[in-house]
Amino acid sequence: MSTTSTTEPDLLQARDTAIAEVGWGQRVSWLQPRNACLWVFVAVIAYGLWYTVSTVRTEAPIYGTPLGIAAIIFSLYAVLFWWFTTHIDRYSRQPLDLRIAAFVWGGFGATWTIAIHANTALIHLYAKWVGPDFAVAWGAGLAAPFVEESAKGAGVLLLMFIAPRVIRTAFDGFVVGAFVGLGFEIIEDILYAINAASENFGVDPVGSSLSTAVLRLATGFTSHILYSALVGAGIVYLIGTVAEKRRIGRGLVLVAAAVALHLVWDSTTAITQGNGPATIALLVISVVVALAIAVTVFHLTVGTEREAMRDLMSPEVANGTITVEELDALAGSYRQRRAYRRGGHGDRRHRRHRLEAAHDLADELGRSRGVETDRVAYARSELARHSPAAP
Amino acid sequence: MPTVEAPPDWVPVERRWLGMDRRTLLPAGVVALLVAFAFWVLPGVDSRVAVDDPIKAGDVIQVGRWVEFDPAVGWNLESGLRSGTATSGTYPDSATLTKGGITLTVTTGDFDGTATALLAQLRKNNDKLGPNALDLQSGTAATFRTAGEITGVIARFSTTTVEGLLGALVSDGRGIEVTVYGPVDMASDRRLENQIVAMLESVRLVDGEAS
């Protein structure tokens, strides 16, 4: 993209529009007594936390060791996926408090206040109305995808109205949904590990928990995190925002895709009628298809953010702070960033710093809403410090 | 007149209803309905629909991959599967039957040891429940042998409101726990007691699994 044929006022106008539309650098206010969504959000999480404390107080005397081990293992797992999800959110990044709120909703609200009650009741009702064999085979697959995706999606919906200046694009929904799913995944995994502790009469609670933990660790990356990311993007399309036109069809397809992937994952043995090799094949196919869909949706949604980054930083090309090549890397894909970093002929570290400093400048410009502040000036000076001409 | 920018999250008076931001009412209401449906409606419907799955003559209950028993006719199958009905090929590790306020549960799992050792493990698990632990009477464990030649031990337990039996059986590395509990006078119904004994004695390994 050339920036030389556009005047500086036009570029600055485009920057202001981009900042306003995608809510770049905006913060979340948690003091909104007139916001009904915030009240529901807090109430649901408060009950979930109370339920968690009650459960831990009951389980800890019996299965304290496996509970502790599972909590440590899955906390490390959470850190890994927290880093990954933060890493892909490289344009108008979600504020830390919003990411934590999404995680807490997924971990404590969606799980304990909504999903556990509805899942249990639905599976029982399938057994009573259709038959116990049907409930054993299909109960989880026909309960969890609908209940859990609704429960997690509800969190994204509430956060859209709690932080309407922050969650503006489908990509924001994708990222916030991923954090909701991460919270759900971690707490559900710990619950599964604790439940496993009582298997085989509780003779080896730690061994039983670890077996379950390993299985969940191996399969977790394509389950709740991925499904919720799709649902999150879908909800933003269904509602529509200043930056993202309402696309009901696209939103419904994304939500349906998440439910369908979840349904197949939870019904593999029922679909294959217990055939071992067929079950493994279906699980592998499910993982591949889920990852392909997630990558497709990532590329589908990230465009708005990349355009905003280009509009935000184009004036910096005009004033000589960054180069066109750097702008293309900043607003580009992973491949473009890699190409930029490798283009320095042995100066990769230096180029990586330039790119990171340019990101800092974008964040500061967003936060100041395009106004020249001391922090913006300092971020620009950091870029100068890392310029090729710097001593 | 200079324009003053509205502070973030300021809600104009014309956009309020009972003091709340009208824009937030619909999504908050939708989620509140979802929570109410999941938290109250579905569990409420579930609790009002009774399980109606009476055992018929010839029914066999399979528990896990290895264990089966003959349930008494007329008892209600609350959870678990009849042999040959698992669509997914997987049988739950537990089955529960009820009748006349009495609940009988059979649970299976791997266990290396004797029936006495399994009963000791079950007592140990019970003791961890602290104030919720059952009063498993010591010194009353009796040995029995099922029709399938599995050796088991059984102990009585009681609380102020219920009494029951805790049975432990082991064969070929498969442990089987049988729990029966009901009202304090449950032993007075000889017919039900005979049915419980018959179910206990029918516990066996699935064909091909026995040594």
In brief:
The complex is a heterodimer of chains A (391) and B (211). Chain A contains 14 helices and no strands. Chain A has helices at 8-22, 36-88, 96-129, 132-162, 170-197, 205-219, 224-239, 248-266, 268-271, 276-318, 324-330, 334-342, 348-367, 374-385.
**Corresponding CATH superfamily of the largest domain in chain B:** Mog1/PsbP, alpha/beta/alpha sandwich
Shape of chain B: elongated
SSE order of chain A = HHHHHHHHHHHHHH
Please indicate the percent range of residues of chain B in DSSP E strands (runs of 2 or more): 25-35%
Low-confidence stretches of chain A: none
Computed structural class of chain A: mainly alpha
General description of the model:
The complex is a heterodimer of chains A (391) and B (211). Chain A is mostly helical and 391 residues long. Chain A is 78% helix and 0% strand. Chain A has 14 helices and no strands. Chain B is of the alpha+beta class and 211 residues long. Chain B has two domains: 13-48; 61-205, Protein Transport Mog1p, Chain A (3-Layer(aba) Sandwich), CATH 3.40.1000. Chain B is built from three helices and 14 strands. In chain B, the strands form three sheets. In chain B, strands 5, 7, 8, 9, 10, 11, 12 and 13 form an eight-stranded antiparallel sheet that branches. Chain B is elongated, with a radius of gyration of 26 Å. Classes of the chains: A mainly alpha (391), B alpha+beta (211). At the A-B interface, helix 2, helix 3 and helix 4 of A face strand 2, helix 1, strand 6 and helix 2 of B.
